[in-house]
Amino acid sequence: MRETDVLRLIATRVTAAGDDAAIVPFHKTNLLLTTDMLHRESDFPAGTTPRTIGWRSVAVSLSDLAAMGARPLGVLLALADPDLDEELISGVLDGALACCEQSGAPLVGGDIDRQRELTLVSTGEIGRASCRERV
Fold it and tell me: For position 103, which CATH number holds?
């Protein structure tokens, strides 16, 4: 299936799901939530520095919120790698924190795990929509 076909299939069963972010009514506003998964092989060409990996991993989700007109409130970042190398993790954290600082959204947590390929998931970025209607 193509990505657009998958999104269409999901939309038939998950009503809050959108292309860039899910819209969740909350009190008198809407919260927008988004998640993105990036992998070493498909998303980070050879030579990509750990700092750039961290920056991109956060920026992809922050851009989804911006596309929906939302202001980011916080970022979660999960990282999986076979070795959990200190230099890699430190560089990724440097980039993620720099991106968060520039956007005004704090990095509030995440998760770590071991797996065969470096994988980062920026998830649960929460933005508040500027309007009360579905975006």
Answer: 3.30.1330.10
